[in-house]
Amino acid sequence: MKALIIGCGSIGQRHDEVLRNTGLFTDIDFVSRRQQDGRTAYASLPEVKDINSYDYFVIASETSKHYEQLVWLDSNVSGRTIMCEKPLFADGVLPEIRNNRVFAGYVLRFHPVVQELRRILSGKPVISANVICASYLPQWRKDRDYRTTYSAKAAEGGGALLDLSHEIDYSLMLFGGFAEVRGMTAKVSKLETDSEDTVSIIAKTESGGVVTMNMDYISRIPVRKILAHTDEFTVSADIIENRIEFCGQDGEDVVTDFIIERNEMFDAMHRDALAGGTLGCTYAEGLEVMKVIRTVQEQSR
């Protein structure tokens, strides 16, 4: 098989590393204006020679470019699999994809802690859940000034709401669809960005539960946790510490630790997509995430 990666920033390079290590591809080329030593790279999608020779496409460019690139691909190839980094889009209408199978790159679905939490909650209505993702933007990419990254620039699809939409995706997966959404975004810190650095969302699920999600760029203490309550138990999932704590009606705590390798989730996500997809975020599910994002954006204007 042949793969084409569109974008060669840090995430594009990571996808390249993962795909090369699968042993499934004879060629992996790029669409990037950056020179790639010894690798085939094209400056733009229309310049790619024989676009139909590729079997798998990975859109790993800035969020603001996803719409144009995905629509172009769907108009020029068919019957292929496309992995589009999260979130699907920054703005504009949500296009109908007719000719290809598209997945959104919400890789945390493949985290063993999230998978185990999904198993624990299966068939158990969640009555309340609290989700938090807190981190410090200047520490994200230690080899780059955060002010030059797309995350700092609203026009390029940056901002905590879009960047940290993993939390919206796995909340929808774990707790079910949202019947009602209320949200607010704000720029509250002295970080030199023009994008929001704090997001708060409260949603009522279709089963009647309440989910709160808080995401930010401003925390020097990184936190990524899920606390979920049912009528029978409470479960806490720590995605950074790779740990689940379960407390049932007997009041006894059970703690389970997990081990995960650096690229294990990305490998699983790509293999799932190439096999047709059973766990990955489908295009339809990615659009549901976008609808929540749109709602919060509109309420924050």
TrEMBL record:
GO MF annotation list: nucleotide binding
Domain annotation GFO/IDH/MocA-like oxidoreductase: ranges: 139-241
Protein name stated in the entry: Putative dehydrogenase
Domain Gfo/Idh/MocA-like oxidoreductase N-terminal per the UniProt entry, residue ranges: 2-90
SUPFAM superfamilies documented for this protein: Glyceraldehyde-3-phosphate dehydrogenase-like, C-terminal domain (SSF55347), NAD(P)-binding Rossmann-fold domains (SSF51735)
Stretches of the chain forming a coiled coil according to its record: none
Entry-linked Pfam families: GFO_IDH_MocA, GFO_IDH_MocA_C3
InterPro entries the UniProt entry points to: Gfo/Idh/MocA-like_OxRdtase_N, Gfo/Idh/MocA_Oxidoreductase, GFO_IDH_MocA-like_dom, NAD(P)-bd_dom_sf
